[in-house]
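Why run this: before we spend reagent on co-expression, it is cheaper to look at a predicted model of the complex and decide which construct boundaries make sense. The entries below are exactly what would go into the expression plan.
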Amino acid sequence: MIERLSTLFVRTLREDPGDAEVASHRLLVRAGYIRRQAPGIFAWLPLGLRVKRRVEAIVREEMTRVGAQEVSFPGVLPAEMYEASGRLADYGDTMFRLADRKGAELVLAPTHEEAFTLLVKDLYSSYKDLPLTIFQIQDKYRDEARPRAGLLRGREFTMKDAYSFDIDDAGLDESYGAQRDAYERIFRRLGLEYVIVAADAGAMGGSKSEEFLHPTEVGEDTFVVAPSGYAANVERYVSTPGEPIDASGIGAPVVFDSPDTPTIDTLVAHANAVVPRADGAAWTAAHTLKNLVLALTDGAGEREIVVVGVPGDRAADLKRVEVAFGGREAEPATDEDFEKLSGLVRGYIGPWSADGPVLGADGSSGVPYYLDASIAEGSAWITGANEHEKHVHSLVLGRDFTPDGRVEAAEVLDGDPSPDGSGPIRTARGTEIGHVFQLGRKYAEALGLKVLDQNGKLVTVTMGSYGVGVTRNLALVAEASHDERGLVWPEAVAPFDVQVVATGKGAEPFELGERLANEFDAAGFEVLFDDRVKVSPGVKFGDAELIGVPWIVIAGKESADGRVEVWDRRTGERTPLPADEALAFVRANRRG
Amino acid sequence: MIERLSTLFVRTLREDPGDAEVASHRLLVRAGYIRRQAPGIFAWLPLGLRVKRRVEAIVREEMTRVGAQEVSFPGVLPAEMYEASGRLADYGDTMFRLADRKGAELVLAPTHEEAFTLLVKDLYSSYKDLPLTIFQIQDKYRDEARPRAGLLRGREFTMKDAYSFDIDDAGLDESYGAQRDAYERIFRRLGLEYVIVAADAGAMGGSKSEEFLHPTEVGEDTFVVAPSGYAANVERYVSTPGEPIDASGIGAPVVFDSPDTPTIDTLVAHANAVVPRADGAAWTAAHTLKNLVLALTDGAGEREIVVVGVPGDRAADLKRVEVAFGGREAEPATDEDFEKLSGLVRGYIGPWSADGPVLGADGSSGVPYYLDASIAEGSAWITGANEHEKHVHSLVLGRDFTPDGRVEAAEVLDGDPSPDGSGPIRTARGTEIGHVFQLGRKYAEALGLKVLDQNGKLVTVTMGSYGVGVTRNLALVAEASHDERGLVWPEAVAPFDVQVVATGKGAEPFELGERLANEFDAAGFEVLFDDRVKVSPGVKFGDAELIGVPWIVIAGKESADGRVEVWDRRTGERTPLPADEALAFVRANRRG
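The model came back. C-alpha cells follow.
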C-alpha cells in the first residue's frame, strides 16, 4: 500500500494548539492525526485512524489468543438496565443521558456490564455453556467533569471491554488470569512500561481488581512501590499503625489559650511558647491532630457529616478517604452543613472538651469521628478543645477520647512503610492503561443471571470485567515516544512502515522515489510517499520528523547516481546507501 | 481460522422472535447473528459481526479504489453546527439530542455533512488541496418514529458516509461519478440487484440526487420504471399534463343537490341519476375532483393550510405532495385547523360556488389552491359547490376556476405515461441501499468553506455526499438469499467459507472433522467446525442450514472409510466424496 502526501488528507501545523497540555495531544494535532470536535471529543484523520487500527489489531489478537470472542454492542442503551444494577446513581453526571421521542430513557454506555450480563442470560442456561469470555472494541462516552490532555481523558474514547462468565470462583480466577496475561502481552507489544497495582473497584463494584499503571509524569494517578516490588494504587495503600504507646506517664489533658493560631505552624510555635513540653523537647506538627469536617455523599445523594482526624504534619487525601468510606464522595463541609451542627466550635474542633467527649459515639455533638489508621493507641495530641481560642495538649487516644473507627485518610509520602514490611515505599505518577476486575456475582445477582449446574440446581454466574483504553494507550505510546521535533512511532503501531521522501531539482528524485515506494510496497511494507513538488527539502524533512514514521528513505541530490539516504527516525542517524540496498537495510535494522 | 461450535458464542433458536416482520430479521435472530437491545437497536454476536466486517471490507475496498480516504468522526457532536446548517429543525424529532453536564447541547449525528465541512474548512485553504473525498464507516443514530423490520429500519445503524469537496461543478460531477461507480461495484459484489432512480434530496438539500433502490417486496419505497429503462422514485415521478381541451361546447356550471353522497362512488351514482350527461355517456370517478384540505408544516414548525385537488379516481400521495411543497410535512387538516377557516363547507369543498371563486388567489376563503399537475386545461368537473349538500358539474378549469399552481399530488399507477415518452410505466417496491447527492454549495455556504482559486480569489467549495447503509445492506442480502430452513449466504459475505460437521458414533468423525478443518484452514479458508458431542445429526444439520455457510462438509457414518459428503447450501445438493477430495471440490465449485 502506497499513500501519497500530495493527496493524503493531512495538514501539518507549525503552531501548537492552544489547549494542548501534554506532548501527545500537541503532536497528534500538529502532525494531523486527530482534530478536536468538542471538549474531549476528537475526529480521527487518516494518519490517526491507521495508528488506531494497529493498536486495535494488537488488542484483538491478544483477546482472540486467550479465547475471548468478539461481539459489538450499541453505544445507546436503555437506562433501565443501569437502574437495575444501581450504576445510574453511581455514575451520576458522568453518564450521558437522553430520552427518545417516546420518552424512553436512554444512556450513552460508559461500560457494558449490564448489557453483556443480560445477553448471556438471554441466550445461555447451563454450566455447559461456560466458561465464556466475550469482548468488544467500541466507542464509549463519559461526561467527564474535566476532560483533559487530549486523548488521555476524553469524553468519547475507544475501549476494549471484555466480560467473563464462570460457574464458580476457580473458573473466574482462570478467566481473570487469562485476561491479565493478555494485558501484559498487549502492553509489551505496545512498548508501554507498566506496573500492576491493587486497585479500588470504584463504580464497578466487585471483589478484586488490579490496575495496570503506566508510569508517566502526565499521569493523574499516584501509586506506591515497595522495595519488594509490591505496588498499589495510593487509594489502596494500607498504612502501618504505630506501636501502642504507654501513656501512663502523661498527665491529664491541659487546656490552653490559643488566640491567633490559624495554621498548624502558628499553633506549634504558640504551644512551644506557652505550654512547653515537660521533657524539654519541642512540639512539632507531628504532635498536633487536625480534625476535618467532611460531607460524605452516596450515589443516592444521601449526605452524612463526619469528622476525620489526621496527624497535623500530613494533608488528608480525600481520594483515600472516599475509598475508605466505600466509594462515597467526600468534600469539606459547607457553611450550610455547619449551621446544622451543634457543639462544634469551628477552628477549634476536637474529640474532647473540658466538659467531656464531643465527637464519636459518646460525644455531645453526635457527630461520628474517625481517626487515621496510622495513629498509635496511647499517643498524646495537641488539638482543638471545642472552645473559642482554646486548644488542649496531652490528650491521649484511648484514655481521653475514642474514635468510632479507623480509616485510611492521610496522604501517602515517599519513605512511608510498605504494607509488606519490605521497607520504605516510593510514590510515583502514572496513568491507568488497563483494569481487570473480579466482579463476582454483583451484576449476575442484580440482573438474575443464573444457570443450571451439574446437579440441575440454579446457580448465579460469577463474572469478571476487563478494560483497555485503546485511544488512551495510543496517546501514551506517543507520549512515551517523541522528541522536540515530533512523533517517534514504534514499529508496532506506526501509521506507515516507511516514508519515502523525494526532494530536489529535476525528475530523478521523484522517479527514484516512485521506484523505491513500489519496491517497499511489493515487499509488504506500508509506504508513505512524499511526492509533493514545489515543497522545500526543509519542509519535507520537518513533516517527516513530525509525522514520525520509523524509517525515512530520502531520494535527494544523489538520485541521479542511484544513491539515497536511510534515516532512522529514532536515533536520527542517516546512512547513505545505493538505492538498491535501502530495502535490505531497513529490513535488517527494523526493531519490530 | 477455525472457530468451534462447541465454544462459539451462539444459540440457535427454534422459534421466530415475536416482533419479526421480515425474513432477514427472523433468521438473523434465530441463527444467532444479532440480538435486540431496544426498539431498532441491536447487538452483534460473533456470527453477525463476521458478516458485518465482510460487508464493511467490500465497501472500504471500493472507496479506496476511487481514492476516497478513511477518517472517523465521533457519534456525538455539538448541536451548534446542525443549527448553522438548518438541519436541527429539518430533522426534528428524528435527531437524538442531549446536553452535557455543563448544559452544552449535543446531538447523536444522523449524518456528518456539517462536521466534514468544518474539518475541511479547518485544514484546507487552496484549490490545490482539492479535489478531496473522505469517508467513514460509523454508527449512526436516528430516532425513527417507526423502527421496523429488524435491521432494515433501525434507530442505530452502521453507515458508510463519504463527502466530496471540489472547486467547481465539473469537479463535483467527476467526484460524484466516481462514487456512483463505486456504489455499482459494491452492490454487484454484494449480489444485490439495484435500479438507480432520480430521487428527492429530502433533508439533505442540494441539487441533484440519485438513489440506488433494491427491488424487494419488503421495501418501503415505490419507484417507477419506464420501457426505456428510465427509473424514478415515485416522489420524483413527473406526470404528463393532459392535452388542453376545447370547452366551448360545455354549458355553464350547474349546481345540484347531493345529499347522502359521502364517497366518490355514491356521488357518481347520484350524479348519473339526477344530472345525466348531455352526451348520454355515464359520469365516472374520473369526472370528479377531490379537494383535500392539508396542513403543511416546515422545519421551523410554521403551519400553512392549502387545498389540493386531485382527480376523484386517484388517491392523493402525501409523500409526493411533500416533495412538491419543498419537503414540508403534509397531513390532513385537523378539526382545529377547520375552525380557523371560513367560507369552506366541509364535505362540499370546491374552488367555486354560485357566488364566485372560493379557493385560490381570487377566492373568497383566502385559502391557496393547487391542482394535480396531470389535469388538463379546459377539463370539466363535478366537485363540491361550497354549500351544504350541493355539488356542481360542468365546472371548467381555466373558465370557471384557476388554481394558484400545479403540484404532483395524485398517486402514480401502473400504466401511467412515462415522463420520457417511452410508454406506460410500471411501479415496484424497493428499499434504498445507497444514495448519492450533489449537495452543491449549500453546506459550504452555511458554514463558510471557501478556498483560494487559481487567481487568488476566495470561492465557495462545492460538495457531494454519498451514503451506503452497511447494516441495511447486510439485512437485504439475507432477505434476498434465504430459504424456509435458514440463511443462504453468498460467498462474498458469509461468516465462514466452509462449515465442517462431525457427526456420528465413535471418534472417527471427530478426528476426520478435525483433520478437514485444519486442511481447509491451511488453504486459507475460514472454517466453522461443528465439533459438538452429544448433539444429534438432525440438530447439527438444522443448525448448519439455519446459519447458512455456503459449503458444508459432513464427516459422518463413513468417516472410518475416509469418506465425507460435501453439501452445497444453495442448491441443497450433497456429493459423497473421498475426504481427500473435499478441498479441491469446494475450490472448484465456489461461486465467489
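The CA atoms of residues 135 and 162 of chain A lie 4 Å apart. The longest strand of chain A covers residues 426-440. Bring this page to Monday's planning discussion.
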